[in-house]
Design brief:
399 residues; Aspartate Aminotransferase, domain 2; Aspartate Aminotransferase, domain 1; 15 helices; 14% strand
Amino acid sequence: MKFDPSGNIQDLLQFGEYGDVNPSVTDSATFTFMQAKTMLETFKGEAEGCFLYSRHWNPSNKYLADAMAAMEGTQAAWVTASGMGAITSAILQLCNAGDHIVTSRTTYGGTFAFLNNYVQKFNISVTFVDILNLSEVEAAIQPNTRLIYTETVTNPLLQVSDIPTLAEIAHRHKIQLMVDNTFTPMIVAPARLGADVVVYSLTKFVNGKNDCVAGAICGNLSFINSLIDVNSGTAMLLGPVLDPFRSSSILKNMHTLHIRMQQHSRNAMYLAKKLTEAGIKVNYPGLENHSGHDTMKKIMHPDFGFGGMLSFDAGSAEKAAEVMEMMENEGVGYLAVSLGYFKTLFSNSGKSTSSEVPEEKQKEMGLTEGLIRFSVGLDHDIERTFEKMKKCLNSTGLL
């Protein structure tokens, strides 16, 4: 039977305290016990269904975590106060001093900075590779390698990771594969393809409103329990706790995620094709000339399309700025970082979300200074949006 992330969310029976169709928001930092021994058992993780303190578990966060696990097809999940909270907690839970990580050189700027600059203080070494070159990935593995880390569709170059093959390489070497699936919720289910841990910035497509910051970690029950162990759990001890009101709003938004991803994908495909016809060299996994098109078709759920992210090169940072300012003035969308919003967002990646990556490294990975990354919105009349874009491209000399 085909894996159905939307159906799994639809099938969740999560009711409020009085039979509310929406789960109640638990606005409490601590929880009472009628018996002292139950509190002790809860501290030890031996009491089922009991809540102790909201840094450990909160019912509202548990509802959202259960929905994320259902969507991903994992045994369990944990939600955090940001995507970076999820990424860093998961990596630090898996890796100890003296360990080694193999990662894609093309990755979100915050993740790059964490792996390139921060983990060295713990004597964790990192090798950055071309994640599409599977022989290079395997050659980078050392006796102390603990983890291969990648993004399903890399940020901002939109390379498509061959998750099944990366999982096979990782498991043959008895190491873990962690995948950031922020760009492709529902479209790809990395855990079903062999990934051991899946991380998210829920800020983006999953929530879809750009009104909060949140993250999630999905994996097997043993790993999630280790993350929240009161004595040694990274997420427990570092405390990146998501506010229960935000959990509640994200959970409600998840029930429209399948519809939103279909529309994001439909609109991005339309723009990619029309821009290509107009003579713009577009980077979009849905186009047959994209290097990752065949890989994407192999790993994706066909119901949800190729995603809402595309990019093209304006030639220079100055030209990119000119085009983006005009597009904002013409109502194409907003000049803003982030993605997954109901309006189109665009930014010059090298000067924004990848600015943590040194310029020489940007050149090494193929990130040009004029690259404009688009998160295509939910526009009903996408043809009208394209006409606005075309006007801007004509006016600035790109067409």
